[in-house]
Amino acid sequence: MAETADVVETVKQGYAFEGAAIELGALLAGDEPKPEAAVRIPLSMVNRHGLVAGATGTGKTKTLQLMAEQLSAAGVSVFAADIKGDLSGISQPGQESEKLLARTKTIGQEWTATGFPTEFYALGGQGAGVPIRATITSFGPVLLSKVLGLNDVQESSLGLIFHYADKHGLTLLDLKDLRAVITHLTSDEGKADLKDLGGLSAATAGVILRSLIGFADQGAEAFFGETEFDTADLMQQRDGKGVISLLELPNLQDRPALFSTFLMWLLADLFDDLPEVGDVDKPKLVFFFDEAHLLFNDASKAFLDSIAQTVRLIRSKGVGVFFVTQTPKDVPDAVLAQLGSRVQHQLRAHTPNDAKALKATVSTFPSSSYDLAEVLTQLGIGEAVVTVMNEKGAPTPVAWTRLRAPQSLMAPASAEQLAASVQASPNNAKYTEVIDRESAYEKLAAKVQAGAERAEAEQQTEGQAKPEPKPRAQKQEKSMVEQVVGSSAFKQFARSAGREIVRGLFGAARRKR
């Protein structure tokens, strides 16, 4: 019919890009897909970011898999959080079936079973992948405050604690280092050190310490320490294909803030490390941020502002970010406004809140001939409403799209396949071994001990050594950091401690190469 012909022609012209592109699928019009009206995202616009949204079970993960495959084939590295373990099959060729081939034929897709180069990671080694860790010093006070759920005053105090540790050469490798410094700063010696900086109240220190204990009880000790992950390892190629890095997130429901904030640390570290490249033909890396609502829940305004700044600026470093969540309402306006591509799967309107989310979603799309409120509730699995940014930076026509099928396995890889991939990874040996090197705590303790031994030797030489009274048990329990940092040996060492830590976005320490 004429109306359908008009829609086909509009989409055909609107998505006719000259350069390389991600092929999402074909326009669905009049209940039939129209292969001649292909729906695509220009590779040059992928670093303008995007959103993949939809209710549970509507195909978001398969859309992510489809996009990751094509990015890899174009030589672009990909990072994705594998929430349910469903993405691990991207490393294996897909399985052909009559139903699959019948679907791909209707949309003009030439389907070939293909696996893609994949690296598997796990936070702190709590999973089958190569361990990813960060030091507390690198993670910084802002991200850690988000994880711990601290209020503004407590976050400010934690920032003061990090400032003190940075200034005095006290590298915080893990949680016990941070607890030791906090304990010191509530001692008499520590209070004097902070006198000119506003001080740290015992009540606030207590809250932070209790939060750290609860955090450690959730298993967080495993996430912090060395060897610290180098985000440069996310940008690799093999045989001309970009490597797809998948981060396993087991037990997400137990510590959602940690997982989402850890992903933000990866982005902040990338931002600090990568050079400016401006507009490029294709991105260096595309970062898929699944379960994105977890990042924004209960976040302070300052934290949200930092996220918006990261998203705005990191595109000039050649990095594209796609947020994956249920509705655009999950993403703050300041971030949503920067997402150039939208792939919206089915939404449900079973409750008043669902209806409100549906209305909000419709308002985020350009005007179109569709009744989007109706279309969004009628989309089938593997279908989506799409609009992207064309090569000139303008939004394309809204298109009801039947999406292409991934060519890799649309199921988890087997445990044997996963184990073999991890064992063969060049990063396995690099990150699997846990390094427990001396932190500032141990180094300073050794320095003080050496100074005490020299003093004792001098006293014996001069015949002035006097037996010291046996210390009471209470004095023996005094923390080593209290002894070290309050000593004159420490103060001399601190004055010559070397470089000061430089912090970037979210207070994360900037990597020195």
UniProtKB/TrEMBL annotation:
<dbReference type="InterPro" id="IPR027417">
    <property type="entry name" value="P-loop_NTPase"/>
</dbReference>
<feature type="region of interest" description="Disordered">
    <location>
        <begin position="451"/>
        <end position="481"/>
    </location>
</feature>
<feature type="compositionally biased region" description="Basic and acidic residues">
    <location>
        <begin position="465"/>
        <end position="480"/>
    </location>
</feature>
<dbReference type="InterPro" id="IPR051162">
    <property type="entry name" value="T4SS_component"/>
</dbReference>
<protein>
    <recommendedName>
        <fullName>Helicase HerA-like C-terminal domain-containing protein</fullName>
    </recommendedName>
</protein>
<dbReference type="InterPro" id="IPR033186">
    <property type="entry name" value="HerA_C"/>
</dbReference>
<feature type="domain" description="Helicase HerA-like C-terminal">
    <location>
        <begin position="33"/>
        <end position="513"/>
    </location>
</feature>
<dbReference type="Pfam" id="PF05872">
    <property type="entry name" value="HerA_C"/>
</dbReference>
